[in-house]
Amino acid sequence: MTQITTARCTVRRMTEDDLPALLAVYGDPETVRYVGDRVPLSPEQCRRWLEVTTTNYAARGYGMYAIVPTAGGEAIGFCGIVHPGGQPTPEIKYAFRRDLWGQGLAGEVVPALLAHGFGALGLERIIATVHPENAYSVRVLEANGMRHEGTATHEDGERTATYALARPGSGS
After folding, report:
1. Residue 50 to residue 44: CA distance in whole angstroms
2. What does the DSSP 8-state code read for residue 106?
3. Is 154 exposed, middle or buried (0-12, 13-18, 19+ CB in 10 A)?
4. What secondary structure letter does DSSP report for 13?
């Protein structure tokens, strides 16, 4: 993957050096309150995630990426295009360290990630799933043209809203 560069960030493939930053993001209970099953990841789960990501790079050519400041340094967040549970439709994901929330970084990374998915990867449609109470993420998705397709209630009572966007010019 060619690196994606925004005004303040570089998005690149994850490496083993990113494990401490991965744990800092996904091991934080407050950061994961709207992510997946809302349970912080352990160091071993982070290592497994990196292994799955490496497999995805080989199989699909894309997966989760590290987000680093353009000036350099350690990862400040993670984003990517993935197929959770083997779902056929590609899905964007993103999360940042909690101390960086509210600085517009998701609003900068999401359009670059969508452009990469539709352009370099040639994807036809990309979805995003979000907890309906995560108002900031909903605003980011809507600001980037993603439209609400519905909200599912799961067996455990949790709800997930799905947003989608078709490749520009595809007529979908």
Report:
1. 10
2. H
3. exposed
4. E
Q: Is 124 helix (H, G, I), strand (E, B) or coil?
A: coil
**Amino acid, single-letter form, for residue 79:** C
The residues facing 163 across adjacent strands are 128, 148
**Cα 170 from Cα 172, distance rounded (Å):** 5
pLDDT of residue 121: 94
What amino acid occupies position 19? Answer: L
Specify the pLDDT at position 165.
Answer: 97
69: three-class secondary structure by DSSP: strand
Which helix (H) or strand (E) segment holds residue 65: the answer is strand 64-69
pLDDT at 37: 74
* Grouped pLDDT means (10 residues each) for the chain, 172 residues: 86 95 92 80 93 92 94 93 93 94 94 95 96 92 96 87 91 60
Helix residue ranges per DSSP H, the chain: 19-26, 43-60, 105-118, 135-143
pLDDT of residue 1: 56
